[in-house]
Specification:
Order of helices and strands of chain B: EHEHEEEEHHEEEHEEEEHE
Oligomer: heterodimer
Mean pLDDT of chain A: 94
Helix content of chain A: 40-55%
Largest sheet of chain B: 7 strands, mixed
Number of strands of chain A: 6
Strand content of chain B: 25-35%
Radius of gyration of chain B: 19 Å
Distance between the termini of chain A: 21 Å
Strand order of the largest sheet of chain B: 2-1-3-5-4-6-7
Helix content of chain B: 10-25%
Largest interface: A-B, 12 and 8 residues
Largest sheet of chain A: 6 strands, parallel
Structural class of chain A: alpha/beta
Number of helices of chain A: 9
Mean pLDDT of chain B: 91
Number of helices of chain B: 6
Order of helices and strands of chain A: EHEHHEHHHHEHEHE
Chain lengths: 263, 267
């Protein structure tokens, strides 16, 4: 009986990316880093080093803007800018980059908190996604957006597919991930957020999980993450102020028996 | 020949100013995967006319095409509290000239006026309008980096209409000898050639000989003639600037060192 997970880390690079990379290396944990272009430019050496160590870098736009609040052309521009900067990092690392993976900032796919079209999915799937994913979008308005937002999302999906972006997390086992639009999407979503960001100085105390023990319990009690013979897709963050939190949470998942796997 | 020649034209002070060093190192950082040479030119503070002139003279006459880029930043006049020309001075602009030269410039005052007719594209660059007191160092170089690598996704709409025409019958630029390069049409000088006129600039009046060149006047005298600056557009349109010089002396000092844009009158 095993529980496995892909580890994805958003928002790199930070001032402490090296520490995070060293920890993952020490534990033999593979990971995909979804990088902001602007952050890549602030600490390119750390990401060059991560590539050299075998980690995968992926696209998280250039300046981390919400797709629901920007037009399609702007978001496509942001994706292109980040892709250019990623290509340069790989070049500086002397490595070939043959993949294209992308995650939206705030998981805002153009439709705000309406991450998937809940009206088109079964009630269980909708409930899981609303609870686990939509909360992290961090928008007060949870209502269904107008038709134009869905049109935007579709245009962005079309762009991503035409440009060769794929979802590499093919071994995820949860049926709701594949039955809903998440598994079919050209962008990368997740099945579990460790919610480490809730302990950032500007967020701490404002969210349901107020300390690291709360977050450990979140992982320890999540029914999908703890399902035997499951493969999950975990979201964590690379933020200077909370790298120690992130490391501790990953360590606790290891201790709980989760095995991290490669894409 | 290197991959890229970048001219920085800015009003940061003299070329030894820290600002030039900081901006150049940021630009080199953005171009770290290219064999680039970055050369800086200082223009007087807030002088967007001089900036525009220097830019146009070097950019429109460049034969380096796509290997030649410009990074331009002259602040709009902060001592002028009246509305700026066509609301200029707010955004970063991209200009592509007929010869392939590309320009990233703050669209302040007349900075882009002299290249307007030579431009095949003048577009807004999507860039933060705040977040740093020193946008020229912290915000604009990454945008320049994208464009220098052929990544144009930061470009927005056409803003040609936001670029004013350059001032006519005005001092545009003063060179190191004190020669004042002016936007007076050569045809105007032809009408009064070989006569003496009284030229009024910056509150100073001087008797000036309209001649073919500096050696057409005696040592110490002023000469008003067709100058060495200008350019020709692909359709054959020629732009030629005139100069007020003082043989053996410094014309600009004699006229109280007029800033770019100072009107030139003669009678």
């Amino acid at each position: 009986m095993t529980r496995k997970a892909y580890l994805t880390i958003d928002d790199s690079a930070s001032e402490r990316t090296d520490d995070l990379v060293d920890y993952l290396l020490s534990k033999g944990i593979p990971a995909v880093f979804f990088c902001w272009g602007e952050n890549l430019e602030k600490n390119p050496a750390a990401m060059v080093r991560a590539v050299k160590k075998g980690f995968v870098l992926a696209n998280h736009t250039n300046t981390h803007q919400r797709a629901s609040e920007k037009d399609v052309a702007f978001t496509i521009g942001e994706i292109k800018q980040c892709e250019f900067l990623l290509a340069r990092i790989y070049k500086e690392a002397g490595a070939q980059k043959s993949h294209k993976y992308f995650r939206y900032p705030h998981v805002d796919r153009g439709t705000g908190a309406w991450v998937i079209d809940y009206d088109q999915s079964d009630i269980i799937t909708s409930g899981i996604i609303m609870e686990e994913i939509a909360a992290g979008v961090n928008l007060p308005d949870k209502k269904k957006p107008p038709v134009t937002a869905f049109d935007k999302k579709q245009k962005l999906q079309t762009y991503l597919k035409e440009e060769g972006y794929t979802n590499p997390f093919t071994q995820v086992t949860h049926q709701w991930f594949w039955d809903g639009e998440m598994g079919q999407a050209a962008d990368s979503l997740f099945t579990f957020s460790n919610a480490d960001w809730m302990l950032q100085p500007n967020h701490i105390g404002k969210w349901p999980y107020k300390n690291i023990e709360d977050l450990k319990q979140k992982a320890r009690t999540n029914s999908w993450l703890n399902l035997e013979n499951s493969v999950n897709l975990v979201l964590a963050h690379d933020k200077t102020a909370i790298v120690d939190v992130t490391i501790e949470l990953i360590g606790d998942m290891l201790d709980s028996g989760i095995e991290f796997i490669e894409v | 020949m290197r991959d890229l020649l970048v001219y920085v034209i800015a009003d940061y002070g003299d070329l030894h100013d820290l600002a030039f060093a900081e901006v150049k190192q940021k630009l080199y950082y953005e171009l770290r995967d290219k064999d680039a040479e970055i050369t800086a030119f200082a223009v007087p503070a807030f002088d967007t006319v001089a900036t525009g002139f220097v830019l146009a003279q070097t950019a429109t006459n460049s034969k380096l095409g796509t290997k030649h880029k410009f990074y331009v930043n002259t602040a709009p006049r902060k001592d002028d509290l009246s509305p700026r020309v066509k609301n200029s001075g707010e955004g970063l602009a991209y200009v592509k000239l007929f010869n392939g030269v590309e320009i990233v410039a703050v669209n302040s005052g007349y900075s882009l006026s002299f290249v307007k007719d030579a431009a095949v594209e003048i577009r807004e660059i999507h860039c933060d309008k705040d977040g740093s007191q020193f946008r020229s160092r912290d915000v604009f170089p990454p945008a320049f980096g994208f464009i220098a690598h052929g990544e144009y996704s930061k470009l927005g709409g056409d803003i040609r209409d936001a670029v004013p025409d350059y001032p006519k019958d005005a001092v545009c630029y003063t060179d190191g000898y004190g020669n004042m390069k002016c936007s007076i049409k050569t045809a105007e000088l032809e009408k009064i050639k070989n006569t003496n006129v009284t030229v009024d600039v910056n509150g100073h009046q001087k008797e000036v000989r309209v001649a073919d060149g500096i050696f057409g006047v005696a040592d110490g005298d002023f000469c008003f003639s067709t100058g060495s600056s200008g350019w020709t557009l692909p359709d054959g349109t020629k732009t030629q600037f005139t100069e007020i010089v003082r043989r053996g002396g410094n014309a600009a000092e004699s006229f109280g060192k007029p800033p770019g844009g100072a009107p030139v009158k003669w009678r």
